[in-house]
Amino acid sequence: DQAIAQYDTKKLTDLTARLKTINAKDPKIQEYIQQIGTFMTLERLANQATKQLSQGLIQTADHQDLIRTIQTAEQLDLHYPEILFIKEQAVIQLTEQAYQSADENDYDMAQEQLQLAETIDSSHPEITATREAINQQKQDRFIYLDQQFHLAINRLNINRATELVEQLKALQVQDSQLISYQNLLEKVSTFGHLEPFDSTSDRLAIGQSGPEMVVMPKTEFIMGNNLGPSHQRPEHRVVFAHAFAIAKTEITVAEFRLFIESSGYTTSAEQSNLTNVYDVNSGRFKQKHGINWRHDYIGKKADDDLPVIHISHTDARAYAQWLAAQSGQDYRLPSESEFEFALGMGNDYIYPWGNKEPEQVMGNFSGAKDKLKRSRVRWREGFSDYQDGYWGPAPTGSFIPNLYGLQDMSGNVMEWVDDCWHDSYTRAPNNGIAWVNPGCENRVIRGGHWASAQSDYQIHHRLKAQNNFHDPRLGFRVAKTIRVN
């Protein structure tokens, strides 16, 4: 009986075993055995409750929680010391959490936590003391809420800032002041600490910096051209569901080399050991063995600052995925709508710069005044009164940026986007995401290149090619979805 009173399971077990050796038929032995079982169950419940408390499983939908465990234990014994201790710890923890919730202006959560504490032990004096302290804390909250709101904004804690705006609204602050909170919250929710047109780059795990990215404004525009060929129709409104940044220039040879050296990736051109190069003697493109991303448009070793070419869509996607893994950011290829928006800047023009031929050097376009070195060969289908000084791809960033701060969007090299090819924009996404069908074989190419006809530089121009296609006129740049945690 003393062992029972002291909840000493071991001693009770030993004594019961000894009683059996004296008189196995003693009727109290069965009572003791039953009590031993009860103690073991209580010990198991106490261990379970300890774990649930440490994991924060106070109350769950499936009832596998601390409250249900305590209730089960109390049905066996209201005074089991371990359960009483756990109840005390749970109440202290919940009241401390209620204090913290109140400090964060979340009174609904504080009330819920106090109700949980009352469910565990309704007579505990700490619950009453906590509730009284919280009621006093509700006075004169504006300065506190304002400070907390701006702290949450600085930490990009959007959920917290949103809650604080609701609390400020409940305080009935002036409409103009409330609107300023809401506007700031919306901007930070979209761009984080960035601003539209900011230039930024991410640190990679290999210790290098990623491509320079430019933040695009989150807006809407009319995509497509009802006066163009069927694959440019119909015009449709695109409202971007996400903020995004796009690389300032095409990915360079040097940037692509980091990917190859880090990953050991083998490009499509290396696998096929065959790609096109420009033949300066004939002025035509021909196939040549042993040419890949390391080479320029005529098959010589490429300079580091040139846009990487001889790259397939598969290769470009692999680079973007590597970049995402290296940076922890959401890198990818641009969607077609993102590219067209960044190219045309939302303007209703034929070309990115207007409706006429360029009147100043704006990019690496084919022009009648350009000519191949040491020859009389000139572009026949380019702009009639244009010369940029390059025959073949120019180093990235050689020309003035557009008004969004991006370079070489319409010239230099054509660029892969992530969308699968569709013969029209019928049923195209209107939220800015890439239109991708699983298993599609053809992808979209946007923008003109260094040897394009005039029409290829138009905003709505688009081509298609197979995933593993590569060419000395084709490169890519990356985009990144801006997510605010």
Description:
The chain is of the alpha+beta class. The chain has 14 helices and 13 strands. The protein has helices at 2-5, 9-22, 28-54, 66-76, 81-103, 107-120, 125-137, 142-154, 158-170, 175-191, 253-263, 268-272, 313-327, 336-344, and strands at residues 199-200, 213-215, 220-223, 236-239, 243-247, 274-279, 284-289, 330-332, 414-420, 442-446, 462-466, 474-475, 479-482. It has a five-stranded antiparallel sheet with strand order 1-2-5-13-8. Helix 5 (81-103) packs parallel to helix 7 and helix 6 (107-120) runs antiparallel to helix 7 (125-137). The radius of gyration is 35 Å and the shape is elongated. The two termini are 60 Å apart.
